[in-house]
Here is the input.
Amino acid sequence: MKRKQGYQVVPFSAQRQAVAASATVGRERNNIHTFTEVDIATPRRLIREHGERTGERLSLTAYVVACLARTIAEYPAFNAFRKGRKLVLLDDVTVGVLVERTIAGEGVPEILTIQAADTKTYQQINDEIRAAQQQGDVPFGTLSGSTWIMRLIPGFLLTQFIRLAARNIRIARRYGVVGVTAVGMFGPSPMWIVPLSGATVAVAVGSIVERPVCIDGALEAREHLCLTLSFDHDIIDGAPAARFTKQFAALLMSGEMLHEACGPQSTDCRA
Here is the structure.
């Protein structure tokens, strides 16, 4: 770091170069977006009751991942990527979860991949995310594992490298074409974000807000989750995207994926 009169100059790290290159490639996608709110009062209550009963803090991000993977499994064409004039449809639903990591003293987003997420229970996905969060500086994704590449090649070549990687079958099988990012779920006002994502389907989790809902003729304050769903329009049209969003939202709202994690002591989980 060089300090001069009135300002200072610091290095632009290899990790930030990778983030910038990924954002450039994501911006080139023909993405369409939908903004929605989902009533998550039931799953939030189940998570809270489980924590009070066992002391275990379950992850809401893991719940979003579990519901997303199950829904993707019913839409095989969404689990695909374009390779020239062909579409490559992947058998396994691998979900990349963007996790804030501290690498070499710097906070950067890194991808944690949940392999075959559609075949896993919520508890298994929750355990993977919690274990990754406890790893500290231990590398598990693309950024920390490829720092040497980022240091050796200039920015424009790094961007081209990511473009080529986005069309590579081996990389797609490893990291998936479905992504989830959670930027901060709690806030006094509704918040949505539009991700610069290279994924075919990307879900950005925003804030949780309370909304008045009429139930049996009475108003009740219920928690709603702000979500942005982004789709690669080269592959997915608006009508299928709308049907997918409706089904995904219904599964999120139901709390069904939490039944196993809640355990036999919670009658609410089996209701």
About this structure: The first strand starts at residue 2 and ends at 4. The two ends are 59 Å apart (CA to CA). The mean pLDDT is 85.
